[in-house]
Amino acid sequence: MDQVKQRLKEVGEKRANVLKKLVREHGDKVIQEVTLEQVITGMKGIVALLTDTSKLDPEEGIRFRGHSIPELREKLPKMNEDGEPLPEGLFYLMLIGELPSQSDVEFISKDWSRRAQGIPEHVFDVINGLPKSAHPMIQFNTAILAMSTESHFRKAYMEGMDKKDYWDPMYEGVMDLISRLPVIAAYIYRRVFHDEKYIDIDPSLDWAGNMAHMMGFESVEVKRLMRLYMVLHADHEGGNVSAHTTHLVGTALSNPYYSFAAGMNGLAGPLHGMANQEVMSWLETMIQEIGSDRPSKDQIREYARNTLANGRVIPGYGHAVLRKTDPRFTEQLNFANKYIPDAPLIELIRNIYEVVPEILLATGKVKNPWPNVDAISGSLLSSYGIKEYRIYTVLFGVSRALGVLSSLIWDRIYGQPLERPTSHTLEWFKEKVGFKE
Ligand SMILES: CC(=O)SCCNC(=O)CCNC(=O)[C@H](O)C(C)(C)COP(=O)(O)OP(=O)(O)OC[C@H]1O[C@@H](n2cnc3c(N)ncnc32)[C@H](O)[C@@H]1OP(=O)(O)O
Ligand SMILES: O=C([O-])CC(=O)C(=O)O
Q1: What's 275-389's CATH class?
Q2: Which sequence positions are flagged as catalytic?
Q3: How far is the CA of 70 from the centre of ligand 2 (A)?
Q4: Among the atoms of ligand 2, which is closest to the Cα of residue 240?
Q5: Whole-angstrom Cα distance, residue 55 to residue 19?
Q6: Domain segments of the chain as ranges
Q7: Annotated pathway, please (predicted)?
Q8: Which partner from 50, 261, 301, 319 sits 20 to 30 angstroms from 154, CA to CA?
Q9: pLDDT in tens, 8-65
């Protein structure tokens, strides 16, 4: 058994026993009251999931296994001192619950680059069967489903494996799947935007460095950006659309490919991960309409007000849980201010940040007027030369695999049962609260 799986087995057995005892001894305790409004407005604030990998605080933002993003940038292993933490280390932290050693990270890097070379040919045939004009998320999700022919989990289930051991083939499938996503994403990128001139994996590189390399970017700077991007988008507790969907589908004992593809279909929605692409279209139209790539603050104000007047949302702003600026936005802005302070798109993002929150506040209904992760990620990628913004949600998806698939392994360790909440008709809700029309 490899060193990561061995450690997972040890911590997994302990925590699964604790959960069993907790439910046995306290299963009947009331932990929350729920209002009618909460149910009808997207179940916001309703505690309904067990997720260990990360926790979101409305004011402070995300913490991965208790560590904030600035802490992680100090504590996680890096390639070199002024570089960004390696996503492999964040994966280890989310999966095991402990900070990794350099050797753990090196092990995962090597393991993933070995596993990445095992993608069957039919997966590329399936991608090639789609028109190049199909959105990259269509191609990405189709490829993920096509890879499920390789599922260890499905095979073990069919062979009658004891359910207490399900976590083991789930771990194998997850490691295969994560290792292969950069290859698939880069293949789609080169297919759609670079005349099918594909670039082979470099087994000496780390996971995110390889992603940049296979997309055609060899500079130290883009590799550093890719490591940051892959860390920042990895997880956002259990209730967001991509995480919750992956978990939900997994509770039917669907294999990791089915579960993750389902989550990615949710990420492809414009109110979730696709907002990173929406922001770029919004900026592009702004620049076109105003006729300058350096619009004034007054021009931005007017454009934003028009967006609202047309009944549309301002992409990259607002959040279902956060009530302050997303620290993932701040980290990217700090990165841009440090390395590319004069990039026109970054200047535009800084100006939008100064004027948009007050416009959203003035609506009187937006609960969070501050920017989220998507408000800047595309402008940062674009400023480094990754300008084809239809690929951005795919990059988000590659990163999101780290968190939601670690959680999927834990779902099987905990033996989480089928998720099946209750629904009611409008009549039931009316009667419940004594409503008269
Ligand atoms: C990685 C991520 O998923 S981060 C989020 C990415 N999505 C975006 O950036 C899209 C723009 N933002 C939004 O649409 C929302 O803020 C969401 C989807 C993120 C959160 O939605 P909710 O939790 O329902 O937000 P909230 O409770 O503040 O909504 C209240 C009202 O304000 C509106 N509102 C919220 N954010 C915005 C915005 N950025 N622009 C305009 N209106 C907004 C809502 O549409 C809603 O209007 P309604 O009552 O007429 O339906
Ligand atoms: O938490 C959410 O609902 C959305 C989000 O920011 C993410 O999933 O990264």
Answers
A1: mainly alpha
A2: 272, 319, 374
A3: 19
A4: 3
A5: 18
A6: 275-389
A7: Carbohydrate metabolism; tricarboxylic acid cycle; isocitrate from oxaloacetate: step 1/2
A8: 50
A9: 999 999 999 999 999 999 999 999 999 999 999 999 999 999 999 999 999 999 999 9
